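ARCHIVE CARD
SHELF: 3
SLOT: left
DATA:
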Amino acid sequence: MKYLKELFKQGKLNYKKIPLLDSLSEEEFLRIRSDFYVIEYNKGETIFRSFDPADKMYIILDGEMKISKIMSDGKEQILYIYEPGDFVGGHNILSGDRYEYTAYALNKTTVLTISSYDVNNVLKHNIKFITKVLEQSYERIRKAEDLIDRLSVISTDVRVAKLLRTLVNLYGHGTDKGILIKYNVTQEELGSLAGVSRETMSRKLNQFEEEGILKLISRGKILIKDYEKIENILI
């Protein structure tokens, strides 16, 4: 919410506070400003669906967006979770693809949309903008590779340990008691990210807590007390 307030001080959008748009000139911004839409979604609401045309980009201003896909066994597989400042759709627009996944609001989420027309006719001529889209595409590929790596492992201990390592890298903050991970997903969604059931995820987290690896503080908070043990599981 603090990020959102900084963006709209005095009721005017400060686009320089948005990482994807901060390289735009005043002229470029004025050319696309009339097509900006700020949309609020409630928790669980669908933002776009698989096979929808990629006719706009979404920049997350507040809240979190879950990107998932229904697999052949009918189960939901979470692919990515995006936070304020992240964006979705740039690669799809530039490549002319439809969305291959569905996006949901993990909580009350505010997004800024930019039309595909503006991306193709204004923004793609800005080298820094294109570079950021390509960097995000690379990061998305890297996260997909991490997911494939987790799902290809048979051992549930290793799957959960790999996920914890990823969460440490993405959301971990060092404290005097260990590494604190703050996230906003349920254990069922954590299980999806690790490729295990909610029950298995809950059981493994409790097991790791008994072994002194971590401490379950509250919903959305895990304290990693012994990161070396996580690395040892992955050897």
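SLOT: right
DATA:
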Amino acid sequence: MEKIQLTYINGSVFCFNSKDYFKIRETHRVIGSLIGPGIGFTGNKDYKSLPAVFTDIESQFLLEKGIVEVVEKPSLASIPPDSVKNQFQTQFEQQGNEMKSLEDERSMNLFKANIEHIFEGQSKSKTRKQKKSDEEFKPKTIDELIADHEQRLSNTPLKNRLVHIPTANQFEIGYAVSKQVQAKDQFKYRVFRDLWERGHTITCGETFSGDFLCYPGDPLHYHASHIVTILQKDEIFNENQMIVHGRTANTVKKICLFAQEDHDGSIKYHTLNWVTPDDHEMK
């Protein structure tokens, strides 16, 4: 199996290629975090775009499974030479013009499909304005409206258009150095690996004050089933902490799961079920 190449930059591991990311996510159930700008419209915080960044735990897991190789590219840390800048600018303008042609064609077809409604609305608007003014004017014909729309499209500068910018570097960037990534907390890594091997999809659990969230499948299609909290060996969990985690899990309708290292080095799991006084009396 050909390994997917991930890029190591300033202590983090990134994936810039969309096909590689979907393969890691869909085939190997490792999610990472999309950190690119929002998709669809400005300010959309729910759906991010590439690149994706992987935690040290996810990176070590992917490396150990032989799914990826992590490389560092020293040339990315320096300002690109003028030759690369010129290549990028040329490609950017070429892509922009190609997309402009397609966008203009789509816009014109849509405009023509609705031209009768546009003409009717323009005529009514002109009539209302004429009543308020002594000036006499003649509404534009359909051909004139189409010509005006074509002129507006041709006058729209490239900077005001949506242009696809590739996230993966398409130019020569020099040599790459292989990197090894180790999780800082090896017990936490072991829990991640164990839960993954049990069939779960795991993401960060900070949203619900945990270490991990466990899903039965891709988080785009499923809600999390468990909030996982890591306990170190011989760590004592006091009542207040149990109440906080129990209430949180109960509120969001998830199972509270504690993972702790046993004396023999194995992973020991405990679940916490939240029971109200009324439920206890009924039982």
